[in-house]
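The following block was generated as part of the benchmark described in Methods. Ligand: NAP.
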Amino acid sequence: MAPTAFVTGITGQDGSYLAELLLSKGYTVYGLIRRSSTFNTDRIEHLYQDPHAKDYRLRLVYGDMQDGSRLTRLLHEVRPDEIYNLAAQSHVKVSFDTAEQTGDVGALGVTRLLEAMRTACPAARFYQASSSEMYGSVPPPQSEASAFSPRSPYAISKLYGHHLVANYREAYGLFACSGILFNHESPRRGGTFVTRKISRAVASIKAGKQDKLFLGNLDARRDWGFAPEYVEGMWRMLQQPKPDDYVLATGETHSVREFAQRAFARAGLDWQKHVQHDARYLRPTEVDALQGDATKAARTLQWQARTRFDALADLMVDADMYALQHGLREFEVRQRFFP
Ligand code: NAP
Ligand code: G4F
């Protein structure tokens, strides 16, 4: 029988790519969505199926990581083979403003979902979206063996979830894995994360619609990869004979300044003429440098990041310029760039 997956965060960047991957593998996918007064399903619109269709395999269900009884009821009804927990308030800077809610979703949400799984479907396989932000001030390169030193409410919530997954694995024998993913981007990346903020601004400046781009810390260094490759790694973790935790990363590190330089150059622009500093984008505490060591994933999962820094910046700028020129939304750009 074709497997069933339950995906939280399906409307996000990773959720949309993961849904595509699982549907292409024949899965029936249940996606948790939040009720919103406006449509929040843009990233999965191209996957939408009429519930009356014969091969109806993408099933969207309402719920929230802050509503444990709903999660329990859903897992009793769906009884999935695999659970991917991607839901989070995932913006680090915002987490300083909304620390309590970020923790409720990112930390306690994991508890709610694992408890639901423990009672409803203990034989299911569980993936937790852990983050390289958990390393915080630990010097690079960072691997599964590195210590954690989180520097934001977001990172602390993720570390809670990370430790809980390990505890439920040991205490109850659950098949639960954490993927410690370093930054991964795409044309579907939220517009307030730095890479997409830059690629959108480049397109807009090139089109003569704006002149300045305001950024915070240009010295921060990140290990940026391409999101579709990372969701493949998530799936591979759940296909292993034993549950474990894995770093997914490119192994390269670059500064925000370098990303801006490359992105503007792609459009034939000089970044220094357009980028200005704005202290409002600085964080109370910063993560200065991330560079992942994904040796374990390469060895065990046969997973490797393929898209490198320059190609990533180029494809994001190309997608945003194309979208602006043709008046397209993100998922429509996909048809042109990633058929
Ligand atoms: P994203 O685009 O911000 O998506 C977050 C998803 O979580 C959205 O679907 C959002 O729903 C959902 N969500 C937020 N609060 C929720 C709640 N209370 N109940 C149910 N759903 C909720 O994030 P992403 O980049 O795809 O990342 C996916 C996961 O990986 C996140 O947990 C993130 O923290 C983690 N992560 C990301 C990266 C990265 O570089 N992208 C790296 C490491 C870890 P709405 O659409 O309704 O807001
Ligand atoms: O793009 P960012 O907001 O991503 P950040 O903070 O690294 O977090 C992302 O990656 C994590 C994995 O390591 C995920 F867990 C998390 O959910 C999220 O997806 O910022 C990257 C860097 C930071 O150092 C920030 O200070 O860019 C710097 N930056 C400089 N100017 C800016 C800006 N970031 C944003 N968002 N906006 C700016 O104007």
